[in-house]
Amino acid sequence: MSAEASVGSHAADSAQFDVSQPACHSTDEHRSRGLLGSKYVKLNVGGSLHYTTVQTLSKEESLLRSICNGGTEVNIDSEGWVILDRCGRHFGLVLNFLRDGSVPLPEDHKELDEILKEAQYYRVQGLVQHCVSAMQKQKDVFESVCRIPMITSAKEEQRMIATCRKPVVKLQNNRGNNKYSYTSNSDDNLLKNIELFDKLVLRFNGRVLFVKDVLGDEICCWSFYGEGRKIAEVCCTSIVYATEKKQTKVEFPEARIFEETLNILIYENGGLHLLDSRGSGSSLGAGQSEEEGAVGGERRVRRIHVRRHIMHDERGPGQQTVYKD
To answer: Could you give the CA distance from residue 154 to residue 278 in angstroms, rounded to a whole number?
Structure first.
C-alpha cells in the first residue's frame, strides 16, 4: 500500500469516527468545562438574567446542582449564558432561598402556587416544604373564617341547632318588635351586647356555633345550647312603667354572658353533668333573677332575667318601688 493510500484511509476513518459521535458531545464538554471550571455562573431564565456562583447553586441536591456538576444537559449561548426554558419571574426568589435558607413568601395564593411549581421543577426540596407549610397555614386561616348561615324560619333554626355537633350561642336581637320607647342608655347597652357577640365570635369561632339576629318576641336575649337542647338563657330587656309612659330597658350583663359562654364550652369534653349539677351560687347582677324550669322531666334550663315589670309608685319621689314579676 502506498503512503498516499495509507493517509487517505486514515482520513476516511477519522471522518467516519466524527460522524458517529453525537452532535452535542462537543457542546457537553464545553458546558462542563464552563460550569465546573468557573466560580460564577450566568443564567438566562426565560429572558431574566441572573448572575450567581456555583457554590450557591450547589447548596441543595437539586436540578441546579446537577447542572453545575454536568449531570444535566443545558444549552449555553455564544456569550456563555446558560439557557433555562422557564419563566424567570420567581427565579430570583429561588436563588435567595438557596443563599439564605429562608425567604418571605407572598400571601397571594396564586403566586404562592406558582413559586411551589418552580421549586418542584428545580427540585429545591427546602423551598417546596416552605411553600407547603405556608399554604397549609393559609388553609387553616380560611377554614376558621366565620360562615354565617341565612335562617328564614323558626323550624330551620331549630333543625340547625339540633343537628349541630358544637355548642351554640344565640343572640336574639329584634329591635323592630319593640312597641315602647327606650330608656336613655338602652341604645348603648343594645350596641354593647352586639359588640360582645362579635368579640365572642372572633375568640371562640371554630369551637362554638354563633347565631345572631333571630326573630322573636324578645328584643335582646342570649340563649346557650348544648347537644341540641337549651342550657341557659340570659334576657337583657325589661319594661319600665313610668308615670306617663312605658319604656324598654336594655341591660348589659357582660360578666354573666361571658360566664355562660365558657360554661357551654364544657360540652366539647362531654361535661354535661358539670353544668346540670351547677349550683345556684353564681353571682347575679343588680335587678336580675334566676329561674329554673324542668325540661323533659330530667334537666333544667337556667333562665336569668332582669325584673320583668317595674312600676314606680305615683305617690311621689322617694317612695318605695314596687316590683311585679
So the answer is: 29
> Per mean pLDDT, which of 14-23, 194-203, 239-248, 283-292 is the most reliable?
194-203
Rounded CA-CA distance 18/22 in Å is: 9
The arithmetic mean of pLDDT across residues 267-293, rounded, is 48
Between helix 91-100 and helix 125-143 the angle, nearest 10°, is 110
Q: What is the structure's pLDDT at 226?
A: 85
Cell of 282: 353564681
DSSP 8-state secondary structure symbol assigned to residue 220: E
Compute CA 21 distance to the chain's CA centroid, rounded to the nearest angstrom: 59
Phi, psi for residue 41 in degrees, rounded to 5: -130, 135
Q: How many residues does this entry show for the chain?
A: 325
Give the residue among 288, 239, 294 at the shortest CA–CA distance from 259.
Answer: 288
Mark residue 47 as left, alpha or beta (left: phi above 0; alpha: psi -120 to 50; beta: remaining).
left
145-182 pLDDT, tens per residue?
A: 556 667 777 788 888 888 888 888 988 887 776 678 88
* Cβ 168 vs Cβ 232: under 8 Å: no
Element at 4 (helix H, strand E)? helix 3-20
In DSSP notation, 54-65 reads HHHHTSSSSHHH
